[in-house]
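hi! just following up on the protien thing from before. the input was this:
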Amino acid sequence: MRIELRVCKHCYEGTHGNPQKTAVTQDMVNCARTVREYKDLIGLEAIYITRVEEGDPGGAEALPAIVASIEGKQVALSDTQLVMEDDDGNMLVYPEPEDILKVLTRNIDQIQQQTRQDVTVELSEEGAKLVG
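and the predicted 3d structure came back as:
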């Protein structure tokens, strides 16, 4: 299985001026980094972290899936998403930050069961609320 986390570069760096979204975006990246470090323990082939900038065509770097929605009369591409590809080539796409954090923290929980090391990731207050 391969995973790609795509996040808005500006949200991650805090230049959009939304500290709550920045905190959640940084939580997602921190979780993905931890999963990537220990991916072999849970049978993941690869995990990619891509920072998307405005104008990127969906931000696909490793996995060719793009989430779009219709806002008004225009198509809007989602800049934050988690894309998973299983061994059969099936794609799962999670565009909601809450779902992304839940998937990543479940992977961290699985890793924690396979190692004696503490692999927990301290989530921001906003991120902790999302995963409940």
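The two ends are 26 Å apart (CA to CA).
Strands lie at 2-8, 46-52, 68-71, 74-77, 81-85, 91-94.
cheers
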